[in-house]
Amino acid sequence: MANSSNVAPEGAFGAFGAFGAFNGSGAFGAFGAFGAFGAFGAPGPANPPLISQALITNHDGIAGNWQSVDPTAVDPSAQESTEYLARLSPAVRASIFSLELGSRIGFAFEPDAVAGDPGLGRVFHLETTPASPVPDTTYKLLFEMRRPTQDIFASQLTLVANYADLRQDRMAEILAQLGTPTEFLRAIAYIEPARTPYTIELLSMAHWLANFVEMRLKYALACKRPIEYSPQIQPMIWTPSHGSLPSGHATESFTMARVLWLLLRANNVKPYSQGIWGEMLMRQAARIAINRTVAGVHFPVDSAAGAVLGLSLGKYFVDRCTHTVPAESWTFDGAAYPEAQDFDWRDYFRPNNPAGGTDPEQIETAWATETAISSPATNQMMSQALNWLWDRAADEWIDLAEDLDADGDES
Amino acid sequence: MALSWTELAPVDQPRDPLADFAVNAMARFTAADLDLSTENPSPERKSEYDDQWWLALVTVARGDDKVSSLTINELVRKAKDHYTKPLDNDLLIPGEYDGAFRESTDLDVITIYARRAYINAVNEQDGEDSLGIESIEVSFPLDSSTVNPSITEIAPIEMDLAVSDQTVVTAVIDHGIAIAHDLFRRENATGALALSRIDFFLDMDGTPDPNAPIQSTVGRVWTRDEIEQILSTNLHNGLLDEANVYRALGLIDWRRRSINSCAHRVSHGTHVTGLAAGYDAEDAKGVERRIIAVQLPTRLVANTMGQWLQQALEQALTFIARQMEHYTVGGAAQATPLVMNFSFGNFMGPHDGTSRIDRAIDGNLSKMAANSNRPRVLMLPSGNGNLSRCHAIVNLTNAMPSKELDWNLQPADRSASILTAWLPVMTPVKNGTVEMQVTVPGFSTPHTIIAGTAPGLTLLRDTNSSGVKVIVGMVVYSPPRFPTNRGRFEIYLVPTDHPVDVRPVARAGAWKLRFTKATSASDLSLNIWVQRDDTLPGFPQFGRQSYLSDGLYDRFSRPGGAVISDDALDHDSAVYRSGMINGIACGNLPAVIAGYVRSDRKMAAYSAGGPTLNAFRLPGPDASATSDDSVVLQGVLSAGSSSGSRVAMNGTSVSAPQVARWAADQIALSPATPFNRASVTAKALNDDTAGMDKPGLTRTGGGRMKLGSVFGDLRWSEQ
Questions:
Q1: pLDDT exceeds 80 at position A196
Q2: Among A343, B23, B309, B609, which residue's CB has the most CB atoms within a 10 Å radius?
Q3: Closest CB to A162 among B244, B247, B257
Q4: pLDDT tens digits for range B38-93
Q5: Residue B264: its chain A contacts at CB < 8 A?
Q6: What average pLDDT score do residues B595-613 get?
Q7: Across-strand partners of B173?
Q8: Smallest Cβ distance to A275: which of B237, B260, B540?
Q9: What ipTM was predicted for this assembly?
Q10: Would the pLDDT of B661 be above 70?
Q11: B161-385+604-611+613-714 under CATH 3.40.50.720, yes or no
Q12: Which residues have a Cβ under 8 Å from the Cβ of A228 and sit 6 or more positions away?
């Protein structure tokens, strides 16, 4: 059966398929998706047998007799140096960044947080001090999510059934969006493998974080898919094996959209501070999320949960990358979601116009609420590695504008 | 499964068999389609199905003097005093009908909303006497949440829309009208596209709102102020959040409906409205082109039998006429010209201008014209059925008194199939003049029905799984009735398939018809039309078109060759392309527009033509306009559902609104000059002088209008 793409943990994460097999240098198969990015797509430097055979006889022919080496002839490399990151392949860096991100995330499921209510899945940020010999650590709540009731899912099912109306219209998008959201974000921001390799890498790490968290939540909350409620939904693509809420596509695309807009604005380059850039990035993320409902594999409430989670994780990811102490936690209470409510991204984010003096903001609803993280440790360990990646990605967006004077004329 | 024929005695026959078929015989299918119960749980013995409101076009009975009609108020009294039980709760008079109209004794065809109990009582033999309805033609049940059953006469509201003498109102009656498209908006003082050119929008899918400034019997009326309020709250970063606008308007609502055309990339109504009245926001002309939009009920559009739309059309015309009262020019009322467009159609009807809908259209247009000295015109498409094989002419002579024809029903057709064979004008039809024999596929007993002075109705029944006999079809003969004065044979058949087990269904295959004339009768011709029941683009698969065949009809010039789109001079089949013109476009007053291909100037193969049987419209269409830019670049460009988008759509649906646009411009040049159907024909004759390559009169009408392309320069610049 033609569902090999379904073997990957999440459809969109199929791009990261190589992580599943983890056969060493093949890891970044992900970027194979980008045609021009073939260099990343190749399974590391190739070792063709002919060349290896030649190198063996070549060595025999020219190496000569062994000369021992004086230890002072070579200096040791600096340890834990971000400069080293630049020499590593993106696949190796991905492993490093994954640990930087993943080792600071904790998870717990509390079945009876409120008696009679569905349990709470809780995601934590781990504050750590420098290790001597082991770090002092404190878990701080970063995100919590409760699944909707059966009444809500049953009511949401009608929306899923009705959205099938758009399948013919959206088929190309739905199939293309089985890959990474970067393909769709790059239609908005000028992302191109040769031009912005670090931006692509940064987005792939944001994607990684979103997937890392959402899969654990999906597993804990165990929400059934639309196909399990009715034989009449008949999705137009494979229903993934994991749970329905939160929507992985929503989580990932909103995480990446928020990270990307913050990245674009990192150097105060003129156009990116206009609200329309955020508007478009959020519309795109929402379109990707809604298309999953059209396809018949997600409830609108899944997209809402994913959007709130993704927007939060996007901010958290940028905090981790920019030496900022994470300060907010969010709660998505699925049981408080209005039964027949469709998904509208504008309930969760305002892409205000920073250029006009109003900052974009993630906003609260009755079922999505914000809490300040209590007494965050200001001296907690920051990730030099993630900061290195962020800086390089941000540098890719520095404006190459002409030097203009205050009147806008060439100076 | 055992088929049988059952002839009904005249006293047992419904007066309008098609209404009876639609409401009763089709109930098991319709109820299943709409997920309605047909059980009778309530003390009143009413089921969910019984509670449905049906739009109905009715001919009002004459009063005692045989000349003047009963009044609407008398119809209501008769319903209340009905001898079986009060039926006034099963009858709803449109609130749009004002007090004067309700007392008028000059009524012909009007629209009512009725429940099954009322329709069935009308259909009783004494229905004309007891309820004052001469004849009735029903729609498909409306979505109950869209009907306001407590509506009474809607009082006129104070609203003065002062416009200039250059203003022309364009009214579009359609489905899937994305009214917030930027082509229908203008900039406000701050440069935001927050102003709407839509003055009134009747969404027949909407939910009645008691707080709305303008009340309606069905749906929700939005005024320009309300629309602009919604626009301004949904403008963010200079862009309109259209998803939220249409959610606020209820035009896209996935909770209530499984078909939301404005969510599609291409929506029929948006495209048509774009052609008729779409202007870039900075185009000054847009200021003078105001729009009234009417969105037809999705259920009536989705159910593929175009005949269900006629009732909604009549209501739309009434609505538009009422809104025209709000416009003033220098303080004068009824001084603003109006151009209307209705890009829908069907295949049925007598094609002579006497059908109820033709009369309702002509009646409404005349009434509007009588109230104003400015033009009131309606554009209709000639239809896309040229190649549908749904028209036949059967000539019966003493040399050849008998003729056979196959009516082919396709499998998996989930809509009813209907055929009408019209006799020539004859009053009366002598008994035995002509007969129709029907042979059902796989059933050895044919049935013959004979024309004459008395109506005839034979049920075709099949047994269901419980052994109960259930109606799968009706074979009908109706004697001539004023004003059509033609007798007719009809066959109504239930669907050939349904996903829910509501068997039995009708048999797919060739239904053999044999028409035979009595030797004593003079030569005569029967005109046969099969009702349209194909699925419209963008809708889920539903109906499949049944068609006629006799083995002599050539579809292609050679196998694999070009399609033949005109009947040849030596055409010898009874099945014709000619005469496939839109069945509701045969009246005296509307301008009817066919479609041609811009690049090679040939008529579009699908563009249907005349002749009609109406002496005031013998050729059929009045003119033709582009319906395809080329054979490869099909359709013409106009607005997609989303702001900024342009999409292609073809069909005579897109020809008509281009003429509406041109008409509005012409009228604006000289608002006091009369403008009508003939003005369109005159332009066509002027643009397309007679020559070797000019298509036939019945295909193109006056000729191929040169209108320029509205948005076509996006395809190539020479347009």
A1: yes
A2: B609
A3: B257
A4: 888 777 778 999 999 999 999 999 999 999 999 999 999 999 999 999 999 999 99
A5: 165-166, 169
A6: 97
A7: B294, B342
A8: B237
A9: 0.86
A10: yes
A11: no
A12: none
Q: Report yes or no: B137 and B23 within 8 Å, Cβ to Cβ.
A: no
Residue A219 lies in a domain: yes
Closest-CA residue of B relative to A340 is B255
More confident residue, B311 or B216: B216
Nearest to B254 among A159, A279, A351 (CB): A159
Measured in degrees and rounded to the nearest 5, phi and psi for residue A70 equal -75, 130
Output the domain CATH number for residue A291.
1.20.144.10
Range of the domain at A158: 104-395
Q: Which residues of A299-331 are buried (b: 16+ CB within 10 A; e: fewer)?
A: bbbbbbbbbbbbbbbbbbbbbbbbeeebebbbb
Mutation pick from A160, A162, A174, A303 vs chain B, by most beta carbons of B within 10 Å, is A162
Q: How far apart are CA B608 and CA B383, in angstroms?
A: 5
Distance CA B67, CA B52 (A): 34
Single-letter amino acid code for the residue at B492: Y
Cβ(B194)–Cβ(B232) below 8 Å? yes
Tally of domains in chain A? 1
Please say whether the beta carbons of B667 and B337 come within 8 A: yes
B chain contacts of residue A169, beta-carbon cutoff 8 Å: 263-265
In tens, the pLDDT along B396-439 reads: 999 999 999 999 999 999 999 999 999 999 989 999 999 999 99
Each residue's pLDDT tens digit, B373-400? 999 999 999 999 999 999 999 999 999 9
- A291 phi, psi to nearest 5 deg: -60, -25
Per-residue confidence (pLDDT) for residue A29, from 0 to 100:
39
Nearest CA to B322 among B115, B97, B482, B493? B97
Residue B383 CB-density burial (10 A; 0-12 exposed, 13-18 middle, 19+ buried)? buried
A372 occurs within a structural domain: yes
With a cut of 80, say whether residue A42 has pLDDT above it. no
d(CA B243, CA B229): 15
A16: pLDDT strictly greater than 60: no
Give the pLDDT confidence of B342-352 residue by residue, as tens digits: 999 999 999 99
Is A346–B259 a contact, with Cβ atoms under 8 angstroms apart?
A: no
Is residue A182 within 8 A of residue A275, CB to CB? The reply is: no
In chain B, which residues fall in CATH 2.60.120.1290? 391-576
| Cα-Cα-Cα-Cα dihedral sign, residues B688, B691, B695, B697 | positive
A188 has a chain B CB within 8 A of its CB: no
pLDDT in tens, A127-178: 998 888 899 999 999 999 999 999 999 999 999 999 999 999 999 999 999 9
Q: Is A237 within a domain?
A: yes
The half-sphere exposure of B440 on its side-chain side, counting CA atoms within 13 A, is 25
Chain B residues close to A344, C-beta within 8 Å:
243-244, 247
* Inter-chain touch A275–B263, beta carbons under 8 Å: no
Is there a contact between B293 and B130 (Cβ–Cβ < 8 Å)?
A: no
What are the distances in angstroms from CA B695 to CA A284, B567, B691? 49, 12, 9
Instruction: Look at residue A39 in the predicted model and tell me its pLDDT.
Output: 38
> Do residues A345 and A307 make contact, with C-beta atoms less than 8 angstroms apart?
yes
Which part of chain B is CATH 3.40.50.200?
161-385+604-611+613-714
CA distance B495 to B410: 9
In the prediction, which pLDDT does A113 show? 76
Q: How far is B338 from chain A (nearest CA, A)?
A: 35
Question: Is there a domain that residue A130 lies in?
Answer: yes
Whose tokens are 């229903």? That residue is A239
Closest CA to B707 of B719, B690, B695: B719
Residues 142-161 of chain A whose Cβ lies under 8 A from any Cβ of chain B: 158-159, 161
